[in-house]
Amino acid sequence: MRTRLHALVATVALGIGGTAVAQGSTMDEIAKYREMLADGNPAELLEMKGEALWKKPRGPRSASLEQCDMGLGPGKLEGAYAQLPRYFADTKKVMDAESRLVHCMMTLQGFSETEATKNWFSKPGQDSDIEALITYIGGQSNGAKINVPARHPEEARMAKVGEYIFYRRSGPQDFSCAICHGQEGKRIRLQDLGKLTSQAGAGAAMSTWPSYRVSQGAVWTMQRRLIDCMRQARWPEPSYLADSIIALEVFLQKTASGTVMQTPGIKR
Amino acid sequence: MKTHLLAATLALATVSAHAAGNDIATPAEQIFRSGFRSDNPKYWMTRVEQDEAMRLCSQYKDNPPAKVRQKIELTQKASIRYPVDGKLIGDWKEGEKLAAVGTGGHIGFIQPDPPGRLRGGNCYACHQLAAKEVAYGTIGPSLRHFSKLRGTGDDVVQYAYDKIYNSNAFNACTNMPRFGLHNWLTPEQITHIVAFLVDPESPVNKD
Question: What DSSP line would sit under B24-67, residue for residue?
Protein backbone atom coordinates (compact mmCIF):
# COMPACT_ATOMS: atom_id res chain seq x y z
CA MET A 1 0.00 0.00 0.00
CA ARG A 2 2.69 2.41 1.07
CA THR A 3 4.75 1.58 -1.97
CA ARG A 4 1.77 2.07 -4.21
CA LEU A 5 1.06 5.43 -2.66
CA HIS A 6 4.66 6.44 -3.15
CA ALA A 7 4.55 5.32 -6.73
CA LEU A 8 1.38 7.34 -7.25
CA VAL A 9 2.90 10.44 -5.68
CA ALA A 10 6.00 9.99 -7.83
CA THR A 11 3.88 9.63 -10.97
CA VAL A 12 1.86 12.71 -10.17
CA ALA A 13 5.01 14.70 -9.40
CA LEU A 14 6.58 13.55 -12.65
CA GLY A 15 3.45 14.42 -14.54
CA ILE A 16 3.36 17.92 -13.19
CA GLY A 17 7.11 18.34 -13.54
CA GLY A 18 6.99 17.17 -17.12
CA THR A 19 4.27 19.65 -18.00
CA ALA A 20 6.09 22.52 -16.35
CA VAL A 21 9.34 21.72 -18.13
CA ALA A 22 7.68 21.38 -21.52
CA GLN A 23 5.81 24.62 -21.02
CA GLY A 24 8.81 26.49 -19.68
CA SER A 25 10.94 25.51 -22.63
CA THR A 26 8.24 26.52 -25.15
CA MET A 27 7.97 29.94 -23.53
CA ASP A 28 11.76 30.25 -23.37
CA GLU A 29 12.07 29.44 -27.05
CA ILE A 30 9.50 32.08 -27.94
CA ALA A 31 11.29 34.63 -25.76
CA LYS A 32 14.64 33.77 -27.37
CA TYR A 33 13.16 34.03 -30.85
CA ARG A 34 11.70 37.43 -30.04
CA GLU A 35 15.01 38.67 -28.65
CA MET A 36 16.80 37.48 -31.74
CA LEU A 37 14.35 39.26 -34.01
CA ALA A 38 14.20 42.46 -31.97
CA ASP A 39 17.85 42.88 -32.87
CA GLY A 40 16.89 43.36 -36.48
CA ASN A 41 13.16 44.06 -36.58
CA PRO A 42 11.99 43.73 -40.21
CA ALA A 43 9.67 46.67 -39.50
CA GLU A 44 12.66 48.99 -39.59
CA LEU A 45 12.87 48.52 -43.37
CA LEU A 46 9.23 49.51 -43.62
CA GLU A 47 9.89 52.54 -41.45
CA MET A 48 12.50 53.74 -43.96
CA LYS A 49 10.15 53.10 -46.84
CA GLY A 50 7.48 55.10 -45.00
CA GLU A 51 9.82 58.04 -44.55
CA ALA A 52 10.56 58.08 -48.28
CA LEU A 53 6.83 57.93 -49.07
CA TRP A 54 6.13 60.76 -46.62
CA LYS A 55 8.60 63.05 -48.36
CA LYS A 56 7.91 62.11 -51.98
CA PRO A 57 5.54 64.20 -54.13
CA ARG A 58 2.65 61.87 -54.97
CA GLY A 59 -0.97 61.85 -56.06
CA PRO A 60 -2.91 64.00 -58.55
CA ARG A 61 -1.52 67.16 -56.89
CA SER A 62 2.03 65.81 -56.86
CA ALA A 63 2.48 66.93 -53.26
CA SER A 64 4.35 65.34 -50.38
CA LEU A 65 2.84 64.74 -46.96
CA GLU A 66 5.36 66.99 -45.22
CA GLN A 67 2.71 69.64 -44.49
CA CYS A 68 0.31 67.09 -42.98
CA ASP A 69 -0.99 68.13 -39.55
CA MET A 70 -1.11 65.04 -37.36
CA GLY A 71 -2.27 67.11 -34.40
CA LEU A 72 0.82 69.08 -33.37
CA GLY A 73 0.87 71.37 -36.39
CA PRO A 74 1.76 70.98 -40.09
CA GLY A 75 4.82 68.80 -40.56
CA LYS A 76 5.30 68.19 -36.83
CA LEU A 77 5.57 64.44 -36.50
CA GLU A 78 7.72 64.04 -33.42
CA GLY A 79 5.49 62.75 -30.62
CA ALA A 80 2.32 63.14 -32.71
CA TYR A 81 1.35 59.46 -32.82
CA ALA A 82 1.55 59.22 -29.01
CA GLN A 83 -1.16 61.91 -28.73
CA LEU A 84 -3.64 60.28 -31.08
CA PRO A 85 -6.56 59.83 -31.43
CA ARG A 86 -7.61 63.44 -30.82
CA TYR A 87 -10.27 65.93 -31.88
CA PHE A 88 -9.46 67.90 -35.03
CA ALA A 89 -11.25 71.22 -35.44
CA ASP A 90 -10.86 71.22 -39.24
CA THR A 91 -12.85 68.01 -39.69
CA LYS A 92 -14.83 68.31 -36.43
CA LYS A 93 -14.00 64.66 -35.79
CA VAL A 94 -11.96 62.55 -33.41
CA MET A 95 -9.35 60.95 -35.67
CA ASP A 96 -6.66 58.34 -35.13
CA ALA A 97 -3.29 58.24 -36.88
CA GLU A 98 -4.64 56.28 -39.82
CA SER A 99 -7.77 58.32 -40.45
CA ARG A 100 -5.69 61.51 -40.19
CA LEU A 101 -3.09 60.15 -42.62
CA VAL A 102 -5.84 59.27 -45.12
CA HIS A 103 -7.29 62.77 -44.62
CA CYS A 104 -3.89 64.26 -45.55
CA MET A 105 -3.55 61.97 -48.57
CA MET A 106 -6.90 63.26 -49.76
CA THR A 107 -6.55 66.98 -48.94
CA LEU A 108 -2.85 67.48 -49.71
CA GLN A 109 -2.18 64.92 -52.43
CA GLY A 110 -5.63 64.78 -54.02
CA PHE A 111 -6.22 61.05 -53.70
CA SER A 112 -9.82 59.89 -53.46
CA GLU A 113 -10.70 57.99 -50.29
CA THR A 114 -10.98 54.79 -52.30
CA GLU A 115 -7.54 55.26 -53.83
CA ALA A 116 -5.96 56.20 -50.51
CA THR A 117 -7.36 53.21 -48.62
CA LYS A 118 -7.28 50.61 -51.40
CA ASN A 119 -4.31 48.73 -49.93
CA TRP A 120 -4.76 49.61 -46.28
CA PHE A 121 -3.10 46.34 -45.30
CA SER A 122 -0.50 44.23 -47.05
CA LYS A 123 -0.88 40.73 -48.44
CA PRO A 124 1.80 38.47 -49.85
CA GLY A 125 2.81 40.17 -53.08
CA GLN A 126 0.93 43.38 -52.32
CA ASP A 127 2.57 46.13 -50.30
CA SER A 128 0.66 48.71 -48.32
CA ASP A 129 1.75 52.36 -48.40
CA ILE A 130 -0.40 53.02 -45.34
CA GLU A 131 1.43 50.36 -43.32
CA ALA A 132 4.80 51.89 -44.30
CA LEU A 133 3.66 55.45 -43.57
CA ILE A 134 2.12 54.54 -40.22
CA THR A 135 5.25 52.60 -39.22
CA TYR A 136 7.26 55.75 -39.96
CA ILE A 137 4.79 58.06 -38.18
CA GLY A 138 4.66 55.72 -35.16
CA GLY A 139 8.46 55.58 -35.02
CA GLN A 140 8.54 59.36 -34.75
CA SER A 141 6.91 58.97 -31.32
CA ASN A 142 9.50 56.51 -30.06
CA GLY A 143 10.41 57.47 -26.50
CA ALA A 144 7.40 59.79 -26.14
CA LYS A 145 4.77 59.15 -23.49
CA ILE A 146 1.31 58.18 -24.66
CA ASN A 147 -0.81 61.21 -23.86
CA VAL A 148 -4.52 60.94 -24.62
CA PRO A 149 -6.30 62.58 -21.66
CA ALA A 150 -9.53 62.79 -23.71
CA ARG A 151 -10.47 66.16 -22.20
CA HIS A 152 -12.28 67.56 -25.23
CA PRO A 153 -15.97 66.64 -24.94
CA GLU A 154 -15.87 64.73 -28.24
CA GLU A 155 -12.79 62.78 -27.11
CA ALA A 156 -14.40 62.06 -23.73
CA ARG A 157 -17.50 60.82 -25.52
CA MET A 158 -15.45 58.55 -27.80
CA ALA A 159 -13.58 57.15 -24.77
CA LYS A 160 -16.96 56.22 -23.25
CA VAL A 161 -18.15 54.70 -26.51
CA GLY A 162 -14.92 52.68 -26.67
CA GLU A 163 -15.43 51.44 -23.12
CA TYR A 164 -19.00 50.45 -24.00
CA ILE A 165 -17.79 48.47 -27.04
CA PHE A 166 -15.01 46.86 -24.95
CA TYR A 167 -17.62 45.24 -22.69
CA ARG A 168 -20.25 44.60 -25.38
CA ARG A 169 -20.98 40.89 -25.73
CA SER A 170 -22.46 39.33 -28.84
CA GLY A 171 -22.00 36.67 -31.46
CA PRO A 172 -22.11 32.87 -31.43
CA GLN A 173 -19.37 32.69 -28.77
CA ASP A 174 -20.70 35.42 -26.46
CA PHE A 175 -17.42 37.29 -26.83
CA SER A 176 -16.43 40.78 -25.81
CA CYS A 177 -12.97 42.34 -25.65
CA ALA A 178 -13.18 42.09 -21.86
CA ILE A 179 -13.49 38.31 -21.60
CA CYS A 180 -9.90 37.87 -22.80
CA HIS A 181 -8.48 41.26 -21.84
CA GLY A 182 -10.23 42.05 -18.57
CA GLN A 183 -8.13 39.98 -16.17
CA GLU A 184 -4.54 39.98 -15.00
CA GLY A 185 -2.06 37.18 -15.77
CA LYS A 186 -4.18 34.99 -18.07
CA ARG A 187 -3.24 33.35 -21.33
CA ILE A 188 -5.09 31.85 -24.29
CA ARG A 189 -3.32 28.64 -25.26
CA LEU A 190 0.30 29.77 -24.67
CA GLN A 191 -0.26 33.39 -25.61
CA ASP A 192 -0.13 35.85 -22.70
CA LEU A 193 -3.10 38.20 -22.58
CA GLY A 194 -2.84 41.79 -21.41
CA LYS A 195 -5.37 43.29 -19.02
CA LEU A 196 -6.29 46.25 -21.18
CA THR A 197 -8.27 48.02 -18.46
CA SER A 198 -5.13 48.77 -16.42
CA GLN A 199 -2.48 51.34 -17.30
CA ALA A 200 0.26 48.70 -17.29
CA GLY A 201 -1.66 46.27 -19.50
CA ALA A 202 -2.98 48.86 -21.95
CA GLY A 203 0.44 50.52 -21.93
CA ALA A 204 2.29 47.32 -22.84
CA ALA A 205 -0.13 46.77 -25.72
CA MET A 206 -0.56 50.29 -27.08
CA SER A 207 3.09 51.40 -26.82
CA THR A 208 4.30 48.68 -29.20
CA TRP A 209 2.01 49.17 -32.23
CA PRO A 210 2.54 49.38 -35.13
CA SER A 211 4.24 46.03 -34.73
CA TYR A 212 5.88 43.40 -36.88
CA ARG A 213 3.95 40.16 -36.50
CA VAL A 214 6.18 37.14 -36.96
CA SER A 215 3.21 34.82 -37.55
CA GLN A 216 1.93 37.09 -40.32
CA GLY A 217 5.27 38.19 -41.77
CA ALA A 218 3.93 41.73 -41.86
CA VAL A 219 3.58 44.92 -39.89
CA TRP A 220 0.13 45.44 -38.46
CA THR A 221 -1.35 48.84 -37.66
CA MET A 222 -3.68 49.39 -34.70
CA GLN A 223 -6.69 49.43 -37.03
CA ARG A 224 -5.63 46.09 -38.46
CA ARG A 225 -5.10 44.68 -34.96
CA LEU A 226 -8.52 45.72 -33.67
CA ILE A 227 -10.41 44.79 -36.84
CA ASP A 228 -8.87 41.32 -36.62
CA CYS A 229 -9.86 41.05 -32.93
CA MET A 230 -13.44 41.46 -34.08
CA ARG A 231 -12.97 38.80 -36.75
CA GLN A 232 -11.68 36.46 -34.06
CA ALA A 233 -14.74 37.30 -31.96
CA ARG A 234 -16.71 35.88 -34.92
CA TRP A 235 -18.32 39.21 -35.69
CA PRO A 236 -18.39 40.77 -39.12
CA GLU A 237 -15.33 42.98 -39.61
CA PRO A 238 -15.81 46.71 -39.12
CA SER A 239 -14.89 48.99 -42.03
CA TYR A 240 -11.41 50.45 -42.10
CA LEU A 241 -11.32 53.71 -40.10
CA ALA A 242 -14.75 53.05 -38.57
CA ASP A 243 -15.61 55.26 -35.59
CA SER A 244 -16.12 52.11 -33.50
CA ILE A 245 -12.42 51.26 -33.92
CA ILE A 246 -11.34 54.85 -33.27
CA ALA A 247 -13.49 54.85 -30.10
CA LEU A 248 -11.75 51.69 -28.86
CA GLU A 249 -8.39 53.32 -29.57
CA VAL A 250 -9.35 56.41 -27.54
CA PHE A 251 -10.43 54.21 -24.61
CA LEU A 252 -7.21 52.15 -24.77
CA GLN A 253 -4.86 55.11 -25.32
CA LYS A 254 -6.51 57.02 -22.46
CA THR A 255 -5.96 54.01 -20.19
CA ALA A 256 -2.38 53.59 -21.46
CA SER A 257 -1.47 57.28 -21.06
CA GLY A 258 1.91 57.80 -19.39
CA THR A 259 3.49 54.72 -21.00
CA VAL A 260 6.56 55.30 -23.17
CA MET A 261 6.18 54.42 -26.87
CA GLN A 262 8.52 51.75 -28.26
CA THR A 263 7.65 51.22 -31.90
CA PRO A 264 7.83 49.43 -34.17
CA GLY A 265 7.27 46.47 -31.89
CA ILE A 266 7.69 42.81 -32.66
CA LYS A 267 5.10 40.22 -31.71
CA ARG A 268 4.17 36.61 -32.24
CA MET B 1 -56.65 47.58 -14.55
CA LYS B 2 -54.30 46.32 -11.93
CA THR B 3 -52.32 44.46 -14.57
CA HIS B 4 -52.06 47.57 -16.70
CA LEU B 5 -50.78 49.60 -13.82
CA LEU B 6 -48.17 46.96 -13.00
CA ALA B 7 -47.06 46.79 -16.61
CA ALA B 8 -46.77 50.55 -16.79
CA THR B 9 -44.75 50.68 -13.59
CA LEU B 10 -42.43 47.96 -14.82
CA ALA B 11 -41.94 49.70 -18.16
CA LEU B 12 -41.15 52.95 -16.39
CA ALA B 13 -38.66 51.21 -14.11
CA THR B 14 -36.89 49.66 -17.10
CA VAL B 15 -36.65 52.97 -18.93
CA SER B 16 -35.31 54.90 -15.95
CA ALA B 17 -32.80 52.19 -15.10
CA HIS B 18 -31.53 52.37 -18.66
CA ALA B 19 -31.33 56.16 -18.67
CA ALA B 20 -29.66 56.42 -15.28
CA GLY B 21 -27.03 53.75 -15.73
CA ASN B 22 -26.14 54.00 -19.35
CA ASP B 23 -26.76 57.22 -21.24
CA ILE B 24 -23.89 56.39 -23.60
CA ALA B 25 -25.55 53.12 -24.66
CA THR B 26 -27.74 54.59 -27.41
CA PRO B 27 -25.07 56.60 -29.26
CA ALA B 28 -22.49 53.84 -28.64
CA GLU B 29 -24.79 51.21 -30.17
CA GLN B 30 -25.32 53.48 -33.17
CA ILE B 31 -21.55 53.99 -33.61
CA PHE B 32 -20.82 50.27 -33.18
CA ARG B 33 -23.46 49.21 -35.70
CA SER B 34 -22.67 51.85 -38.29
CA GLY B 35 -19.05 50.66 -38.27
CA PHE B 36 -19.97 47.66 -40.38
CA ARG B 37 -20.25 47.70 -44.15
CA SER B 38 -23.77 48.24 -45.40
CA ASP B 39 -23.38 45.49 -48.00
CA ASN B 40 -22.68 42.82 -45.35
CA PRO B 41 -24.93 39.77 -45.74
CA LYS B 42 -27.86 39.88 -43.32
CA TYR B 43 -26.71 36.65 -41.73
CA TRP B 44 -23.43 38.27 -40.71
CA MET B 45 -25.19 41.15 -39.06
CA THR B 46 -27.25 38.81 -36.87
CA ARG B 47 -23.99 38.23 -35.02
CA VAL B 48 -24.01 41.70 -33.52
CA GLU B 49 -27.53 41.28 -32.15
CA GLN B 50 -27.74 40.74 -28.39
CA ASP B 51 -30.12 38.56 -26.43
CA GLU B 52 -31.22 39.66 -22.97
CA ALA B 53 -28.33 37.93 -21.20
CA MET B 54 -25.75 39.56 -23.47
CA ARG B 55 -27.36 42.95 -23.00
CA LEU B 56 -27.44 42.65 -19.21
CA CYS B 57 -23.89 41.26 -18.98
CA SER B 58 -22.60 44.12 -21.15
CA GLN B 59 -24.51 46.70 -19.12
CA TYR B 60 -23.07 45.45 -15.82
CA LYS B 61 -19.59 44.72 -17.24
CA ASP B 62 -20.12 41.01 -16.49
CA ASN B 63 -20.75 41.67 -12.82
CA PRO B 64 -24.52 41.99 -12.41
CA PRO B 65 -26.24 42.54 -9.06
CA ALA B 66 -27.65 39.42 -7.36
CA LYS B 67 -31.22 39.83 -8.63
CA VAL B 68 -30.17 40.26 -12.25
CA ARG B 69 -27.74 37.37 -11.87
CA GLN B 70 -30.52 35.07 -10.61
CA LYS B 71 -32.82 36.12 -13.43
CA ILE B 72 -30.17 35.38 -16.06
CA GLU B 73 -29.32 32.01 -14.54
CA LEU B 74 -32.98 30.94 -14.42
CA THR B 75 -33.77 31.88 -18.01
CA GLN B 76 -30.55 30.31 -19.26
CA LYS B 77 -31.17 27.09 -17.35
CA ALA B 78 -34.56 26.83 -19.06
CA SER B 79 -32.90 26.93 -22.49
CA ILE B 80 -31.03 23.63 -22.12
CA ARG B 81 -32.03 20.85 -24.53
CA TYR B 82 -30.89 17.23 -24.43
CA PRO B 83 -30.12 14.62 -27.10
CA VAL B 84 -33.20 12.67 -28.23
CA ASP B 85 -31.90 9.36 -26.90
CA GLY B 86 -31.23 10.95 -23.51
CA LYS B 87 -27.65 9.68 -23.31
CA LEU B 88 -25.31 12.37 -22.02
CA ILE B 89 -22.02 10.48 -22.36
CA GLY B 90 -20.73 10.03 -25.91
CA ASP B 91 -17.36 9.00 -27.32
CA TRP B 92 -14.38 10.54 -25.52
CA LYS B 93 -12.17 10.15 -28.60
CA GLU B 94 -14.52 12.41 -30.58
CA GLY B 95 -14.60 14.76 -27.61
CA GLU B 96 -10.81 14.90 -27.52
CA LYS B 97 -10.78 16.06 -31.15
CA LEU B 98 -13.47 18.68 -30.58
CA ALA B 99 -11.68 20.04 -27.50
CA ALA B 100 -8.63 20.89 -29.60
CA VAL B 101 -10.38 22.57 -32.56
CA GLY B 102 -10.31 26.36 -32.38
CA THR B 103 -11.24 27.16 -35.95
CA GLY B 104 -14.55 27.64 -37.65
CA GLY B 105 -17.18 30.34 -37.73
CA HIS B 106 -14.97 33.24 -38.83
CA ILE B 107 -16.77 35.54 -41.27
CA GLY B 108 -15.86 38.72 -43.13
CA PHE B 109 -14.06 39.77 -46.28
CA ILE B 110 -10.47 39.55 -45.08
CA GLN B 111 -9.96 36.08 -43.64
CA PRO B 112 -13.17 34.05 -43.42
CA ASP B 113 -13.18 30.33 -42.72
CA PRO B 114 -13.97 28.18 -45.75
CA PRO B 115 -17.58 26.98 -45.65
CA GLY B 116 -18.04 23.74 -43.75
CA ARG B 117 -14.87 24.15 -41.68
CA LEU B 118 -15.13 22.10 -38.51
CA ARG B 119 -16.18 24.06 -35.47
CA GLY B 120 -14.92 22.71 -32.18
CA GLY B 121 -15.23 23.51 -28.53
CA ASN B 122 -11.77 25.11 -28.48
CA CYS B 123 -11.57 24.00 -24.83
CA TYR B 124 -7.77 24.23 -24.65
CA ALA B 125 -7.89 27.93 -25.41
CA CYS B 126 -8.97 28.44 -21.80
CA HIS B 127 -8.67 25.14 -19.88
CA GLN B 128 -6.07 22.55 -19.01
CA LEU B 129 -7.46 19.10 -19.86
CA ALA B 130 -5.28 16.12 -20.86
CA ALA B 131 -1.78 16.34 -19.37
CA LYS B 132 -0.07 15.74 -22.72
CA GLU B 133 -1.42 18.99 -24.20
CA VAL B 134 0.81 21.69 -22.75
CA ALA B 135 -0.51 24.54 -24.89
CA TYR B 136 -3.53 25.28 -22.74
CA GLY B 137 -4.92 28.64 -21.66
CA THR B 138 -5.79 29.81 -18.17
CA ILE B 139 -8.90 31.96 -18.62
CA GLY B 140 -10.96 29.08 -17.19
CA PRO B 141 -10.09 26.66 -14.38
CA SER B 142 -8.02 23.51 -14.96
CA LEU B 143 -10.24 20.54 -15.82
CA ARG B 144 -7.48 17.96 -15.58
CA HIS B 145 -8.66 14.84 -13.70
CA PHE B 146 -12.22 16.11 -14.05
CA SER B 147 -14.02 12.94 -12.92
CA LYS B 148 -11.09 11.60 -10.93
CA LEU B 149 -11.74 14.51 -8.60
CA ARG B 150 -15.52 14.67 -8.86
CA GLY B 151 -16.59 11.10 -9.60
CA THR B 152 -18.78 9.94 -12.46
CA GLY B 153 -22.18 10.28 -10.81
CA ASP B 154 -25.26 11.37 -12.75
CA ASP B 155 -25.09 14.81 -11.15
CA VAL B 156 -21.51 15.31 -12.35
CA VAL B 157 -22.41 14.17 -15.88
CA GLN B 158 -25.48 16.37 -16.04
CA TYR B 159 -23.54 19.36 -14.69
CA ALA B 160 -20.84 18.90 -17.34
CA TYR B 161 -23.47 18.70 -20.12
CA ASP B 162 -25.48 21.65 -18.85
CA LYS B 163 -22.41 23.80 -18.27
CA ILE B 164 -21.19 23.28 -21.86
CA TYR B 165 -24.68 23.73 -23.29
CA ASN B 166 -25.30 26.95 -21.40
CA SER B 167 -22.55 28.14 -19.05
CA ASN B 168 -24.68 31.07 -17.89
CA ALA B 169 -27.16 28.72 -16.21
CA PHE B 170 -24.64 28.40 -13.36
CA ASN B 171 -22.63 31.57 -13.50
CA ALA B 172 -24.27 34.52 -15.19
CA CYS B 173 -21.92 36.49 -17.45
CA THR B 174 -19.08 33.96 -17.21
CA ASN B 175 -16.40 34.22 -19.89
CA MET B 176 -17.38 30.79 -21.24
CA PRO B 177 -19.50 30.68 -24.41
CA ARG B 178 -22.97 29.08 -24.44
CA PHE B 179 -22.10 26.34 -26.91
CA GLY B 180 -25.47 24.59 -27.06
CA LEU B 181 -27.67 27.67 -26.98
CA HIS B 182 -25.91 29.09 -30.05
CA ASN B 183 -25.87 25.72 -31.87
CA TRP B 184 -22.11 26.11 -32.00
CA LEU B 185 -21.98 22.48 -30.89
CA THR B 186 -24.79 19.98 -31.37
CA PRO B 187 -26.17 18.10 -28.33
CA GLU B 188 -24.39 15.02 -29.68
CA GLN B 189 -21.06 16.82 -29.91
CA ILE B 190 -21.54 18.06 -26.35
CA THR B 191 -21.99 14.44 -25.17
CA HIS B 192 -18.60 13.63 -26.75
CA ILE B 193 -16.93 16.44 -24.81
CA VAL B 194 -18.73 15.27 -21.66
CA ALA B 195 -17.23 11.81 -22.27
CA PHE B 196 -13.79 13.37 -22.71
CA LEU B 197 -14.26 14.96 -19.26
CA VAL B 198 -15.81 12.07 -17.33
CA ASP B 199 -14.71 8.78 -18.95
CA PRO B 200 -12.08 7.13 -16.73
CA GLU B 201 -10.29 5.99 -19.93
CA SER B 202 -10.05 9.54 -21.27
CA PRO B 203 -6.57 11.12 -21.05
CA VAL B 204 -8.18 13.87 -18.97
CA ASN B 205 -8.48 11.36 -16.13
CA LYS B 206 -6.05 8.61 -17.02
CA ASP B 207 -2.80 10.56 -17.41
Answer: THHHHHHHHHHTB-TTS-HHHHGGG---HHHHHHHHTTT---HH
